[in-house]
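SAMPLE LOG
Freezer: B-3
Tube label: C17
Construct: single chain, 117 aa
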Amino acid sequence: MAEKIKYTLKHVGINCADEKEAKQLVSLLCSLFDLEPGNENDTHIFVSNMFEVMKDSTRGKHGHIALQTPDVELAMADLAKKGISFKEETIRRDADGKVIFVYLDGDIGGFSFHLTK
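STRUCTURE (predicted):
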């Protein structure tokens, strides 16, 4: 039997039309769930470590789902056997050249998925 790949939910990315809408959503999520805003840059604002509120809608119809796995390359090999391909331009590697981040090609249920270490 093949080794079972372990995945955990890292965060959910939620698309917004623009920065104004993103800030309104961040405020709502913080208020509803007693969370704190986190890191912000030109593309997103984190809410705690649970949500990544996007200032645009470039990934997925609704957003994206980040799955953490101890070995991204092993997970990629397993998913490739199941017919999944990857967005090569999104691959990030560590100092040793090992893949630590990648988006799956295509959406699932209106969401893009990415794997991260």
